[in-house]
Design a protein that fits this description.
single chain; 6 strands; alpha/beta; extended
Length: 469
Amino acid sequence: MYSKEEREKAIKLYIKYGKCGADVIRELGYPDRKTLVKWYRTYLEKGVLFEQYPRSSTYSLEQKKTAVDYYLEHGRNLSRTIRALGYPSRETLRSWCKELVPGFCNKHISGIKVNKEQKKEVRFEQYTRTDIVKDVAKKYVITQEKSYNWKKELFLGSEHIAMDKGKNKSQPPDDRDTLLSEIEALKRQIKRLKLEKDILEPTVEIIKKDPGVDPKNLTNREKVELVDALRDKYSLKELLDCLKLARSSYFYRRKIALLPDKYEKLRHHIKRLFDENYGCYGYRRIHALLVREGICVSEKIVRRIMAECDLVVVRKKRRYNAYKGEKAPAAENLIRRDFYAEAPNVKWITDITEFSIPAGKVYLSPIIDCFDGLVVSWSISSRPDAELVNSMLDRAIETLKEGEHPIIHSDRCGHYRWPGWVLRVAKAGLRQSMSRKACPQDNAACEGFFGLIKNEMFYNRSWKGVSIR
């Protein structure tokens, strides 16, 4: 809220600068252009810069009580109270009554109380037909409906009257117009649901969003694409209301889309630089080349253009690494590169190896007995997860006889530190052993087994057309 002095100063500068609102706002920093013009028009109409607007006085507690008491004592009529006192408004008086009169909203005030003798007189006059029902109701200051109810109570009882009232309320409406209006409402609801369903389909197909995305959370540009795709089936108003998109925003985006691309030359130049460097330059290197050529453009614009043109650097696929860090204490190296065993089920070694074929990657996890190189158990999967090693260990434990508790040696892979593996090892009474970090020689026997099996059946063969299944 601006003070009177601030408004006067703004009007004087507005007149001084030849009604140039931009200069006034630039110098003072306030107000906006519409407000300044409004102040100037008020000045022209009244001949003065500004008058002090009278403030509405607040009402004291005594005034509130006086108004509420008058309202209660004079028939509880809001209009009569306001005319007599000259204040306040209807809503204000109603709020005062709610504040000062307990149970004002819930208390039912009946007009006139009728005793049992008067009820009998009403019933008698109805059956003798000395007067018509309308005159009887007017005589005793009751409604015609109440007189009929008293007549029914005489023969049917009050319980039957209460049941009739509840029955009438619970019965569905028989009015034809009401049923037709309900049908129309259901049709509109079905059309609305069908519209929402039709909006979700192009959201996935055209904009390439996830199926669970809410169309209302899309950008205005994406919403405009959806509206244009569905204009043949639905009206513009229905689509804009469903997507919560303003009509002005829709036409603004349509207008922007028709403008020529100001980065068209730069777009072709960036594509050429990307192709000349074999598609291995990201947006930082492309931006550096543009700067070297004297083209001054923001790095963010280069990144946006490359994203719009799908200029993505193809990186070499990284080999799977099962090391997950030192998340749990490593077991002691009990084998110490001594892979000789005097009997079966004394020393076990295990590891995971990868087979990469055009159809995908396959992972093999065996347990090998150091006594004779026998594969005790093995499992194979397209995912190197906990199930791969746990299922292998369960089958190996089933082969043990009573009293056999071999050492099971592995590397420091995360699979052998997960709670599932550690719990199985402890429950079976096995002794866990681990290699040193980044030292494959500590598990050389298992690495040699992988090299042998790959030389004999994997290398120097074509795996095209072979499924990983």
